[in-house]
Write a structure and sequence with these properties.
Elements: H1 3-11, H2 14-23, H3 28-84
Helix pairs in contact: 2-3
Amino acid sequence: MPKEDFAKLIASPLDQQIYHAHYGHMSDFQRCQVWARIEKQTFEKQQAALAEAHRIHQREQKKTDQLLKSRSMQERMLKAAAITGKVIDGE
């Protein structure tokens, strides 16, 4: 495969690179380079997805912690009100 065509292939979408790696007419060295690039792109996409999932998990964990803290504070306020005999607004 000429260098110009190979450069276009490297710049093409991942699906097209995979197709040409399987069925394209190129040297073994070029095929190896294409597969290495495919593996690198796939790994980077997996890492990005993992990082996004981690960020979502962290955000959800923070929300859960805040809800638990507010619930705990409400319970302490109710206990304190029961001890002093005062009525808390909203109840």
